[in-house]
């Protein structure tokens, strides 16, 4: 084989191995010479291969023929061309994508004398390119919709790729983010911090996950980034990949959560959190300290063991009803320590909702032991203060009574020898009547001033208020008119008279203070049953009759804040020298203690009406009448009586009365003297 033939053979073999077919067209015979590989690519048998370009166009896709002709024409002018188009293989009509290159040789006058070209089947390449384009679109769509920022840096730490989320973290557009390094985007300290991690990842290949602030101290932007090395063919071609998630809001929430937890842990008030079934999930240290419980022993238990259920039955029902309706309950409860010690507390229980459903309950409990003791002492001081107010009012009445007693006694003594029993009796009756009035007034004062145990009595409320009007009038002064309007039916309640006097005086004094100049205080009494609002608000038994003591003034009324705090202990709109802030709280406590409730209506500039509801006693009890005292029949007596009294006048009076009755009287001014008399005189 000659060298020329050998070279041709090697060329054809190389083209065949590379999948490239070739052709040669010569102008002298206007025929196309097809290489074996070209015949294989087009599916032509050698004997049927198109001899000319006109016949070759038969296998070109109809939509691509014009394009191919344009390339041939352009090649004729330029001497070469390159094109891609589609053909149908002759044997199986399989559609293939081909890429052709051709060179057209021309003579001196510009006529084509030869046309040599090659063809390569790029169908598989086209499919791969299409798959790559689809994959790229999917990748970019994924990156654009990813919740985190994604970016890639080169060896120089310049951003090669990023999504919008990454650029948004830096506060710039994507175009501004690509092609620059962190030093051009962030403060120097932040940029160097980021770069040091990037260099570490490139050098070690370690994946680094951390949280960092890429903002300023004033405008913090916290991100959680995951950085990793993307291997290249050489160390110099390694890249840095990163995912960055904005956790600023999470950090803020977490910081607030820590602050809230610290506040709860360090709070002086007891805080208890339960699940929706009232099982304890958490108690703060104050609860453990004050109630002397181990917190671990509380978890999972229902907190009914902290309350005297029998004593607080009604209050607990009110709590369950209120929070069960999704509202917050606030009130007082006696909480039990682990040792059974009662602790007076102010309790607020609130439901916690998530997506409309109650998931937890939170109780905030304030130990009011000190407040209760202070309240007790201030209440005592308030009684004394009330006595001081009353003293000026009753001094005049006592003076008049004493004048009657002293005058009658003086006249009787002056005319003792001449006065007849008929003239003496009216004088003595007057002295006794005035003395009884003075004794009644004294009992009323003691009810205000002394620390006495509660002694409930069946009282006709209208009669009691009527008897107290004079005293109340002196309390409020002459510039304010006080009136009473009571229904005809008997208004009997069971209450300690001194407590009733406290209710009256506190509410009337409150009304007086609300009237700036002259005005009117109207007291009304009626019987009523609770309506739906009272039943819901106060858990009042619907079948119970109540006596309603209503005190209405035409004063200044209360603001919204004052009305909200009206019954709060130690809350007062007056100066500390004018009020303790316990008046209405005392009234509230007395009414609740007597199984009643109190409400009020107020409007600024129009006045306030307080309504105290006290349970009626049964008609049988209310109807009992006291039998009038019968005349005492004097019966002669005998025997020896020892009178022990350190007040000389009183001892003398008692001794005379007993001697008139027929007794032999011994008197002593002290216990020691009484013992001596007993030793000397024997039995008495």
Notable features of this structure?
single chain; 684 residues; alpha+beta; five-stranded antiparallel sheet; 22 helices; 24 strands
Question: Which helices and strands occur, and which strands form pairs?
Answer:
Blueprint: H1 3-17, E1 20-26, E2 31-34, H2 36-42, H3 53-56, H4 65-78, E3 80-88, E4 95-106, E5 112-121, H5 123-145, E6 149-153, E7 159-162, H6 164-170, H7 174-177, H8 188-204, E8 208-213, E9 222-230, E10 239-246, H9 248-266, E11 270-275, E12 280-283, H10 285-291, H11 295-298, H12 313-324, E13 329-336, E14 342-354, E15 357-367, H13 369-414, H14 421-449, E16 457-460, H15 461-476, E17 480-486, E18 492-495, H16 497-514, E19 519-528, H17 532-538, E20 546-553, H18 560-564, H19 583-593, E21 597-603, E22 607-615, H20 619-622, E23 640-644, H21 648-660, E24 664-668, H22 671-681
Parallel strand pairs: 17-19, 23-24
Antiparallel strand pairs: 1-2, 1-5, 3-4, 4-5, 6-7, 6-10, 8-9, 9-10, 11-12, 11-15, 13-14, 14-15, 16-18, 19-20, 20-22, 21-22
């Amino acid at each position: 084989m000659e060298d020329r033939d050998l070279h041709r053979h090697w060329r054809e073999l190389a083209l065949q191995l590379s999948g490239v077919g070739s052709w040669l067209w010569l102008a002298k015979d206007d025929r196309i010479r097809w290489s074996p590989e070209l015949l294989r690519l087009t599916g032509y048998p050698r004997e049927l291969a198109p001899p000319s370009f006109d016949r070759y166009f038969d296998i070109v896709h109809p939509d691509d023929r014009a394009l191919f002709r344009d390339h041939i024409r352009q090649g004729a002018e330029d001497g070469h061309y390159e094109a891609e188009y589609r053909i149908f293989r002759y044997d199986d009509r399989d559609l293939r994508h081909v890429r052709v290159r051709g060179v057209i040789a021309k003579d001196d006058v510009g006529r084509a004398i030869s046309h040599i070209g090659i063809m390569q089947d790029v169908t598989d390449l086209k499919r791969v390119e299409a798959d790559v384009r689809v994959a790229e679109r999917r990748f970019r769509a994924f990156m654009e919709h990813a919740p985190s920022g994604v970016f890639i840096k080169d060896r120089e730490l310049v951003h090669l790729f990023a999504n919008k989320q990454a650029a948004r973290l830096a506060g710039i557009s994507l175009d501004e983010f690509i092609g620059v390094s962190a030093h051009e985007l962030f403060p120097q300290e932040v940029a160097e911090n980021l770069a040091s991690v990037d260099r570490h990842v490139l050098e070690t290949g370690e994946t680094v996950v951390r949280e960092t602030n890429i903002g300023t101290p004033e405008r913090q932007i916290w991100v959680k980034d995951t950085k990793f090395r993307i291997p290249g063919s050489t160390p110099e071609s390694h890249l840095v990949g990163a995912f960055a998630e904005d956790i600023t809001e999470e950090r803020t929430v977490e910081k607030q959560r820590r602050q809230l937890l610290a506040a709860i842990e360090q709070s002086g008030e007891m805080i208890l959190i339960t699940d929706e079934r009232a099982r304890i999930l958490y108690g703060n240290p104050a609860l453990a300290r004050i109630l002397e419980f181990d917190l671990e022993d509380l978890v999972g238990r229902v907190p009914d063991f902290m309350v005297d259920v029998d004593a607080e039955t009604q209050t607990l029902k009110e709590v369950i009803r209120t929070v069960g309706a999704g509202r917050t309950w606030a009130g007082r409860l006696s909480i039990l320590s682990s040792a059974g010690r009662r602790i007076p507390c102010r309790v607020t229980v609130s439901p916690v909702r998530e997506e409309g459903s109650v998931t937890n309950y939170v109780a905030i409990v304030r130990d009011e032991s000190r407040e209760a003791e202070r309240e007790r002492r201030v209440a005592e001081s308030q009684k004394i203060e009330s006595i001081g107010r009353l003293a000026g009012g009753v001094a005049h009445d006592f003076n008049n009574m004493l004048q009657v007693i002293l005058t009658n006694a003086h006249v009787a003594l002056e005319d003792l020898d001449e006065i007849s029993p008929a003239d003496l009796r009216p004088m003595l009756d007057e002295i006794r009547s005035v003395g009884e009035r003075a004794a009644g007034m004294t009992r009323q004062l003691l009810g205000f001033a002394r620390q006495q145990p509660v002694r409930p009595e069946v009282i006709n409320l209208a009669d009691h208020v009527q008897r107290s009007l004079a005293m109340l009038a002196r309390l409020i002064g002459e510039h304010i008119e006080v009136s009473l309007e009571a229904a005809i039916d008997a208004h009997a309640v069971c209450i300690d008279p001194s407590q009733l006097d406290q209710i009256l005086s506190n509410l009337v004094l409150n009304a007086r203070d609300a009237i700036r100049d002259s005005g009117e205080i109207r007291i009304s009494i009626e019987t009523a049953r609770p309506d739906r609002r009272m039943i819901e608000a106060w858990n009042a038994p619907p079948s119970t009759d109540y006596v309603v003591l209503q005190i209405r003034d035409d004063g200044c009324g209360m603001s919204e804040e004052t009305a909200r705090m009206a019954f709060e202990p130690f809350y007062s709109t007056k100066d500390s020298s004018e009020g303790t802030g316990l008046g209405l709280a005392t009234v509230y406590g007395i009414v609740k203690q007597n199984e009643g409730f109190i409400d009020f209506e107020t409007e600024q500039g129009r006045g306030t009406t307080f309504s105290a509801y006290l349970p009626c006693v049964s008609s049988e009890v209310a109807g009992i009448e006291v039998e009038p005292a019968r005349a005492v029949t004097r019966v002669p007596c005998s025997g020896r009586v020892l009178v022990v009294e350190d007040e000389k006048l009183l001892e003398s009076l008692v001794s005379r009365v007993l001697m008139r009755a027929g007794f032999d009287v011994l008197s002593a001014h002290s216990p020691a003297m009484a013992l001596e008399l007993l030793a000397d005189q024997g039995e008495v």
